[in-house]
Design a protein that fits this description.
Number of strands: 0
Number of helices: 1
Structural class: mainly alpha
Strand content: under 5%
Helix content: over 70%
Largest sheet: none
Order of helices and strands: H
Radius of gyration: 21 Å
């Protein structure tokens, strides 16, 4: 029983870490998309 509870605790912690990692990746991808969009707008204005 003790091992089962310990295992659940470890899995819960890993799940939370994974959520934070995915959230951070989403923010990075959004920032990259914004940078590409801004660069495209600047190039469009030069034409």
């Amino acid at each position: 029983m003790k091992n089962f509870v310990s295992g659940l605790l470890i899995l819960s912690c890993l799940g939370l870490v994974a959520c934070n990692t995915v959230s951070g990746a989403g923010k990075d991808i959004r920032a990259t998309g914004s940078a590409i969009s801004n660069a495209a707008d600047k190039a469009k204005q030069k034409l």
